[in-house]
Amino acid sequence: MSVRALLAALLLVMAGPALADPAIGKRVDAVFADDAVTLTEAGKTVLVYRAKPLDPATQPGRANYVGALYAPDGTALIEDGPGDHPHQRGIWWAWMKVQTDGKSVADGWYMKGLSYFVREKRFLGDPQGGGTLTVDVDWMVNSGPELVYVARETTRITVRPLTAGSRRVEFDTIITSRVDALGLGGSDDDRGFGGFSMRLVEPEQLTFASGGKPIAPGGAAVDAGPSMGFAWRGGSNTPAWTVGLACKANGQAVTRWMLYNERSMQNCVFPGRAPLVLRKDQTLRLQETLVIRPASRKKTP
């Protein structure tokens, strides 16, 4: 996959929301179930948000994430619970260090000591044909003798209408501390990974580019531009699509990335190894824009 194709995906990431193509005549809608919400367009699944764990007895923290994401032609782009890293959840936002008053009380990355209770799920369409799923979530630490309510989260997932064969998905998450000092931090090493992550399919076949330049993953976090392009090298078993991702934290672009050409996730690293501390009622806002576009215009559905 050429850098030019990746750059085109990145330009779509950085651009504003596009208007719907009037020739398409399709609308984004939502199908609600007790444990999940499926967002569709013209009856085709776009993504599936998991509101409750499939097995609450063994994995009570496996909720509040996107477990399935599809390209416009139905190609699956992410994996949920792969055998090599069963804790990875498709598209999710979590940190290894969840602290209260400077003491580690839970690990959201490996789903230890933290559960998510989705209090409300609602969907609203927009005049352009897109729609937004909004979820209100309570973070409950269960590592001690009593449940402790540590944070309130509101996440909005907006799916824009399919335009010129490309799809845009936007995530907007606000986490509000409900304790005197809530700390969120990444892995306790020089990688410091944590925050918004994706487990893309066939990671061994991925190529990476940022700012029009190829990026080589090397087992450590890399500093690059405010957006990253992902593309598969090609072949009968790899998606004929590119994925562009841009991340912000409290309005500032995240430019540090954890990238893998082995079976693992891709992550825009925030805040890093040292925890970000939120005082009571203080908020952290995470914003991500994801653009899925054909690797070649000839393959536009």
UniProtKB/TrEMBL annotation:
Keyword annotations: Signal
Endpoints of the signal sequence: 1-20
Keyword Signal part of the UniProt annotation: yes
Domain of life (superkingdom): Bacteria
InterPro entries xref list: DUF6807
Protein name: Methane oxygenase PmoA
Lineage, top ranks: Bacteria, Pseudomonadati, Pseudomonadota, Alphaproteobacteria, Caulobacterales
